[in-house]
Amino acid sequence: KKGNLFFNNKEYEVAIQEYNKVIAKYKTQKEVEKAKEAINDCIEALALKEIEKANKMYKLVLTKTYEKDAEIYFERTIKAYQKVIEKYPKTLTSINAYLYIASCLENMNQNKKALKIYQDLSDKIVKGEIKKDLADRLLESIKKKAKKISTGQQF
Hints:
Strand content: under 5%
Distance between the termini: 48 Å
């Protein structure tokens, strides 16, 4: 209950500590599974909070695509998304970060690198590393983007 209170107050780090106490204290499968699920929710919430910063940078950089220093802005934005991936690698948010990195690369005309990211995500889907419902939507999006890149179409 304490963990839920902290979660609802957006104090995710403290909530994780409380959920870990539940895991240590209770041995029933049901309680442990609930606590593990709640920890995953907290981690996802922290990842979302982190990606918001990168998304603000992304929106700003899109207004600067025709400026001479646009590539520098895209590189900074990519680093912000990479930080999300490094801190929260097993979250759905990290998948979004990969997609934003690929989009930045496309805007920088680095289509081969963008295509590599899409192919890597496709491989993760095939290996079952991404949840089925998200994987289906992601795969469809990846196929469309990869086709555009390979045929040289503009976005």
